[in-house]
Task: inverse folding
């Protein structure tokens, strides 16, 4: 087992190929340990060079609505009346602090996601 830091795209590709080979190795074996270490190295490299950005607040709300099988009307009372919900989801108006608190409580979306800036529609 020769494991070294991933310092380049070629190192990354080589690590991915090797991980494919040892991925299903049993735990507490030489290859199992290698798979575990490679996974950590690959994860660190991907976090640095291929970060996944959080969606904007409205997209996060829409994603969670889909996950929870909610419709726009289900947000009435959580962030306001029917027209206010439409304005928010269509990016005509910004979320308020009270809306963010209620969305965090009911949809379990982190306030740190909901407070991010986003572009309003014109």
Result:
């Amino acid at each position: 087992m020769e494991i070294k830091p991933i310092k380049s795209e070629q190192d990354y590709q080589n690590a991915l190929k090797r991980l494919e080979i040892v991925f299903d190795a049993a735990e507490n074996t030489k290859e199992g340990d290698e798979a575990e270490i490679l996974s950590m190295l690959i994860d660190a490299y991907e976090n640095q060079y291929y970060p996944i950005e959080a969606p904007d607040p409205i997209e996060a709300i829409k994603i969670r609505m889909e996950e929870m099988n909610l419709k726009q009307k289900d947000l009435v009372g959580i962030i306001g009346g029917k027209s206010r919900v439409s304005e928010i989801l269509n990016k005509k108006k910004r979320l308020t602090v009270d809306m963010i608190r209620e969305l965090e409580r009911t949809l379990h979306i982190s306030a740190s996601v909901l407070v991010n800036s986003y572009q309003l529609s014109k």
Notes: The chain has a mean pLDDT of 93. The longest helix spans residues 30-49. The helical segments are 9-22, 30-49, 57-67, 82-89, 97-107, 111-114. The CA atoms of residues 100 and 114 lie 6 Å apart.
